[in-house]
Amino acid sequence: MSRKTWAAVDDYIVEALFEADPALDAVLAANRDQGLPPIDVSPAQGKLLSLLTRIQGAKKVLEIGTLGGYSTIWMARALPMDGKIVTLELDPHHAKVARSNFERAGVSERVELRVGPALESLAALGAESAGPFDLIFIDADKPNNPNYLSWAMRLSRPGTVIICDNVIRDGAVLDGGGHDVNVVGARAAFSFIGGDKRLDGTAIQTVGAKGYDGFAIAIVS
Ligand SMILES: C[S@@+](CC[C@H](N)C(=O)[O-])C[C@H]1O[C@@H](n2cnc3c(N)ncnc32)[C@H](O)[C@@H]1O
Ligand SMILES: [Mg+2]
What we know:
Blueprint: H1 3-17, H2 22-33, H3 43-56, E1 60-64, H4 70-77, E2 84-89, H5 92-105, E3 111-115, H6 118-127, E4 135-138, H7 145-154, E5 161-165, H8 181-195, E6 199-208, E7 211-220
Parallel strand pairs: 1-2, 1-4, 2-3, 4-5
Antiparallel strand pairs: 5-7, 6-7
Helix pairs in contact: 2-5, 3-4, 6-7, 7-8
The structure holds S-adenosylmethionine and magnesium ion (MG).
Residues 41, 139, 165-166 line the site of magnesium ion.
C-alpha cells in the first residue's frame, strides 16, 4: 500500500464524513501563506482529537505545541461554552499566526495562548495551580517528551487523558540504537508511559495524508 493510497483514503474519509469547513481551510491557507511548516495534524487526526475531547467530556485542555493552531481549533470547538484550552508555543511568529487563526475561527474566547519555551510556561501553570487538565495533547519538540509527560502528570487528575503525537515516525521508533533525536523522544514517551504505574496507555498507528506515524494515548489513574 502506497502513501498515495493512504492520502486518497484520507480524502475519502473527509469527503464522506466531514462537513465543508471553510474556517479550517482558511487556517491551513494562512499557515501556508505565512511560511509555517505543514506539520499540523491531518483533518482526520484533528477530528479524532475533537472526538476524544468530547468523549472525555473535557472542559480544560492543555496543548503543548501550537504551530498555527489547527489542532487547537479542532479541540476548542469540541469544548463546552465554559471550556478552555491553554496552548503553548515557543515561536512568536507561529503564535501570531495562531492568534489570527483563532480570531477567524471564532474560538479566541476559549483559547489561552502562552508564548515561550513550554517548560517555562508549564512551570508557570504549575505555580498558578492551573490544573488539573482533563486532556493534554503533547506535540512540540520531541526530545522534551519525557519532560512534558512529567509536567502532564503534575497538571493532571485521575482520569486525565494524555495524548502524545508523532511516536511512530515511519516505524523508526523500532530503532533503539539510532541518533535521531525525534526517535529518541518517541521512544522516551513509550518508556515514560510504560514505566509509570499511574499511566495505562497504548498507541494508535496512523497512515494518511501525513504519512505513517501515530499517537500514544494514556489515562491517568
Ligand atoms: C508539530 S508543531 C505543532 C502542530 C500543532 N499541534 C497542530 O497539529 O496543528 C510543533 C510546534 O511546537 C513548537 N515548539 C518547538 N519547541 C517548543 C518549545 N520548547 N516550547 C514550545 N513550543 C515549542 C514549534 O515552534 C511548533 O510550532
Ligand atoms: Mg504532530
